[in-house]
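User: Structure please.
Assistant: Input sequence and predicted structure:
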Amino acid sequence: MTTQSPSLKTMLEGLIGTLSVSSVTPAFDHSNEPLVTLLADWLESAGFRAEILPVPGHPGKSNLLGTLGSGPGGLVLSGHTDTVPFDAPLWTHDPLKLTEADGRYYGLGTSDMKSFFALALEAARAFRASDLKCPLMILATADEESAMHGARALVAAGRPLGRHALIGEPTNLRPVRLHKGVMGELVRLVGRSGHASDPSLGNNALDGMHEVMSVILDWRAELQQAHRHPAFPVPYPTVNLGHIHGGDNPNRICGECELHLDLRVLPGMDPAELRAALAERVAGVGQRRGLQWSVEPLFAPIPPAETPATAAIVRACESLTGHAAEAVSFGTEMPFLNQLGMDTLILGPGDIAQAHQPDEFLALDRIPPTLELLRALIRRFCVEGEAAG
């Protein structure tokens, strides 16, 4: 490693101080390219080859891939460059300035999950390219907190990366090998408005949605009976009726009604098949009642993900942490990295309880064990090579 590489604290200050909010609301959304440029400079000064990969169709958004060494296989240390929006007046500390207090580093992204890039680079200082039988890669993605455009672009490009991947999301340094998928669905019924004094003058979409809701609740019960995964605290898929709006006045027959659903689905369940099953049930109601209907995604689904318990990265992290791999309900980029042929594990020093809220922090005592773990993984999968996996 060169002496030009900045210190760990300097890197943390730079990461936290560089605004990179992503949001589906354009007023809150920012480019991540200043952060990507900063990381690329650090990677190159540390001996990595740095590639900035613009995300097609999303100006101002880029992924970054740094590679140390060469050859097939290897280890990918992955994270997302963006944070969620923030309410600065609710923070005790400046969210865009690294602040050390009470045995913690405070700042936006300290836990979720900008700090992981600094820790990955710090861990990599112990190695040169000539030490490695298999490459070490540091991957930084765009827009994980909004629509996962960066990870989706990697899948669309189909470029192979490493064989093993670790995503440094906040897990309290406990390995996570599976999570549920997330779907948001919109159900719309269109009838005919009319005077409320005579039902024959219209076709009430709210009446139809009442029946749709009953059908969906029956379907929910069927899904919970048919699908179970004991690794999850809630071991079945969930369907939540989260938003409804219809009509405009009590003396008018409701001409249109809209329902929004949240679905959390288990590994092995296909979002496309679930949407088709939902549409079939909505169509039945629409046809019976003479209503127009549609089912549309509120956003592209985050697929469920599961890496086998026997995968080398899972066994290695279980051994190094002393914890069996767990399951979580929040979504990550894990399914997309798995689609690229990697066995992916989620493990990072932050705490999900600190994410997405004021005074986000990373406990200082999490830093030494994280560095030790990352160095051990680099030795196992890059220095010793594939045979160790």
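The two ends are 26 Å apart (CA to CA).
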